[in-house]
């Protein structure tokens, strides 16, 4: 029985690979809908990109709901310097003719959770957590229907957008604080593990050798120029780690920790303080992932992606 999931996303190249990976295994993951949020690029572009990616995978049946224009409190900060002006530099994809589905992303998340079977569904946030926080605040009754929140965000050590903070949590730390405080089971993929998921040249060549349109787009995205100072020479597959954990949890290790979010403005904004050694003796609120078998991850991801057009 395929696991029902929602991907909340700010495509972004790594989001695109994560969505393609999810769509390549419909027997394992039942993608209920995609919800978009402002992050890597403004929400108009993240929404257009989500539609382009679904077209690439031949999945125009997947509803895409447009979401938050920006964070709950702070002004929006985007990352075109990394992902290019339209957010998908290197993919070379045509714009979709399809329109987003009616209804705000937060309302779509609420509706999907309320109508989910007893076992609920899994939320996979790949961008700033604004839509998830809005949904929780608008409809607290949905929290028991959240089977898991498996998110990309935060960092055990150095950040990427500032020394203290990872981009998704930095953009909307107030939303992250709401999500990490909601009580739903959280699996956190921070930079400590996603920076291990950098494709080698052989990995990239193996994907290119698939010869499909999806493979060509992924190859273009993975081989695009990358600015310095972000912590890795190659493009880390941050967001695909979220989907990979759902498919192959045995490739990852981690531990339950208490995670605190810094919401104040200043050099520590967006810091995820992870009490890895439980020094503060506070109840854990996340299962924090710290390692991945990257070689196996790329091998298995390539096999899965081979199923796409
Ligand atoms: O810090 C990396 C995260 O920020 C990734 O999800 C990337 O797509 C951006 O959203
Ligand atoms: Ca993302």
What does this protein structure show overall?
With 309 residues, the chain is α/β, with parallel strands linked by helices. It has a single domain (3-305), classed as Inosine-uridine Nucleoside N-ribohydrolase, Chain A (Alpha-Beta Complex), CATH 3.90.245.10. It contains 12 helices and 10 strands. It has helices at 13-23, 43-56, 80-83, 105-115, 130-138, 167-171, 173-180, 191-194, 201-208, 213-222, 240-247, 294-305, and strands at residues 3-9, 29-36, 64-65, 121-125, 146-152, 186-189, 252-257, 259-261, 272-274, 286-292. Strands 3-2-1-4-5-6-10-7 form an 8-stranded mixed β-sheet, sandwiched between helices. A two-stranded antiparallel ribbon has the order 8-9. Helix 2 links the parallel strand 2 (29-36) and strand 3. Helix 1 (13-23) packs parallel to helix 2 (43-56) and helix 1 (13-23) runs antiparallel to helix 10 (213-222). The longest helix has 14 residues, at 43-56. It is globular. The relative contact order is 0.17. The model has no long low-confidence stretch (mean pLDDT 97). Alpha-D-ribofuranose binds next to helix 1 and helix 6.
List the bound ligands: alpha-D-ribofuranose, calcium ion
- Gross geometry: globular
Structural class: alpha/beta
Question: How many distinct helices?
Answer: 12
* CATH-defined architecture: Alpha-Beta Complex
Question: Largest beta sheet, briefly?
Answer: 8 strands, mixed
Overall helicity: 25-40%
Strand order of the largest sheet: 3-2-1-4-5-6-10-7
